[in-house]
UniProtKB/TrEMBL annotation:
Gene3D superfamilies: 4.10.410.20. The keyword Ribonucleoprotein does not apply. SUPFAM superfamilies: EndoU-like (SSF142877), Somatomedin B domain (SSF90188). The lineage of its organism: Eukaryota, Metazoa, Chordata, Craniata, Vertebrata. This is Uridylate-specific endoribonuclease. Monomer. Coiled coil: none annotated. Residues 45-87 form the SMB domain. Its main location: secreted. It catalyses: ribonucleotidyl-uridine-RNA = a 5'-end dephospho-uridine-RNA + a 3'-end 2',3'-cyclophospho-ribonucleotide-RNA. GO terms for biological process: immune response. Its EC number is 4.6.1.-.
Length: 370
């Protein structure tokens, strides 16, 4: 993409970039509703870590389950048995910022399935200021994608990814019910991405960090955290991390999630997405790049939606998984091709799987360099 002009900063939540001027700068990301915590810890006793592993420190609790409680000696008595096996709990096993930047660079270099420059012609057109994102004005008369080499979509991970996109009802409040074929498609996707150098890099790193003891344990956890169903609306199991992040949802009359360029391109090609504008265009001169944009999805508006452009499915899946595992509910600072980039993930706090593990509620890029 073209060189970036100075970025006007406006952000929904306050971030103190204490590490110095080299840190990525946040841009406006108004797309996600705050993930509600269960009132009064409905799923756990306050003196236990059940369903509380890795929650944020709360001084009102009698004991704690955050990753640093061993350092301060204030963990609940069952912290080690319930949370220790997940690998996030011990300061000696903590993943550092430098390690995150190193592994993200390795994943970036390993993405051999990404789009090449000639594979995508992007027409980003009008850039607006963050103060204009609520205007809902279509400032771009032409589509975002002028051309995409669809031969990319015949690659195994792309094909497996695309097969998943139509398995969901986009409106929250409507329960998801998967057929045997749709469940098999989830397994095919996981199998295909695990064959890639990208996911091999990620698994090797996490195993070295004592997060997982075997590849099967890792794959099983990915399936639960990404494809496990939970309820964003009423009592129906109507959502999952994969549906929200990659396919997109409609909640309370607005678009939530929808952070994938392949999904965007395919919906735009069908006339269901109308690209309005963008507020940020990343510094990378090859793919993957990052774009933060405004668009209308078949009658519903997305005020700001960030997405990688030209990345392979396994690349996005790996980075979002890495950040959710290493920095759940926090800003995850990475490095791609020498440029800083930050991803925000949130766990779903109202239900759990396994021994108190959390599902992915959302994951998206929140900042990059100017």
């Amino acid at each position: 993409m073209r060189a970036c002009v100075p970025l006007i900063v406006a952000i929904l939540f306050s971030l103190a970039w204490a590490e110095g001027p080299e840190e990525p700068e946040p841009f406006l990301e108004l797309e996600e509703e705050p993930v509600e915590a269960p009132a009064g810890h409905l799923y756990s006793a306050p003196s236990s870590c059940r369903d509380r592993c890795h929650e944020a420190f709360d001084r009102h609790q009698p004991c704690h389950c955050d990753p640093r409680c061993p350092e301060f000696g204030n963990c609940c008595t069952d912290f080690e048995s319930l949370c220790g096996h997940e690998g996030f709990s011990y300061s000696s096993d903590a993943i550092t910022k430098e390690e995150l930047q190193s592994i993200s660079e390795k994943i970036y270099r390993a993405d051999v399935n990404k789009a090449q420059k000639a594979d995508i012609i992007l027409n980003s057109q009008n850039r607006i200021s963050p103060s204009e994102t609520r205007d809902q004005v279509d400032r771009c008369p032409e589509p975002l994608f002028t051309y995409v080499n669809e031969k990319l979509f015949s690659k195994p991970t792309y094909a497996a990814f695309i097969n998943l996109l139509n398995n969901y009802q986009r409106a929250t409040g409507r329960g998801e019910h998967f057929s045997a074929q749709q469940l098999a498609e989830q397994d095919v996707f996981l199998r295909e991405v695990m064959r890639t150098a990208v996911m091999k890099e990620l698994y090797g790193f996490l195993r070295h960090q004592n997060r997982y003891g075997s590849e099967q344990e890792f794959v099983d956890d990915l399936k639960n955290m990404w494809f496990g169903l939970y309820s964003r609306g009423n009592e129906e199991e109507d959502s999952s991390g994969f549906e929200h992040v990659f396919s997109g949802e409609i909640k309370k009359g607005k678009v939530t999630g929808f952070h994938n360029w392949i999904r965007f391109y395919m919906q735009e090609k069908e006339g269901l997405v109308d690209y309005y504008s963008h507020i940020y265009d990343g510094p990378w001169d090859s793919y993957p790049d990052v774009l933060a944009m405004q668009f209308n999805w078949d009658g519903y508006y997305k005020e700001v939606g960030s997405a990688f452009i030209g990345s392979s499915p396994e690349f996005e899946f790996a980075l979002y998984s890495l950040c959710f595992i290493a920095r759940p509910g926090k800003v995850c600072q990475l490095s791609l091709g020498g440029y800083p980039l930050a991803i925000q993930t949130y766990p779903w706090d109202k239900s759990t799987y396994g021994n108190g593990k959390k599902y992915i509620a959302t994951a998206y890029v929140v900042s990059s360099t100017q």
